[in-house]
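ARCHIVE CARD
Drawer: 12
Card no.: 0347
Subject: one protein chain, sequence and derived structure
Cross-reference: see card 0346
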Amino acid sequence: MSSHNTDIRYLTPIAVDVKWKKYCRFKKHGIKYIDYKDPQYLFRFVNDQGKILPRRLTGTSLKYQKKVAQAVKRSRHLALMPYIGDNLKETK
């Protein structure tokens, strides 16, 4: 038994978590202005409780994250979006 088989074979492929590369959707699509009067679009950047999602989750760049935050705050001020939402996503 001098020859050892070093290849390890599996019956099923190993599940490897593939992390998608995060990207700024505003840079990719060339969006310059984030409209605060469009709450349906802004709901993408807000979680179920009504909190603004951080950059590390959305992949938004710093420049556009500031614009998103400002747009969400303006939309809340004009009562287009709620400040606090109980199961906000279900009521859309």
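Annotation on reverse: The chain has a mean pLDDT of 85. Residues 25-77 form a domain with the 30s Ribosomal Protein S18 fold (CATH 4.10.640.10).
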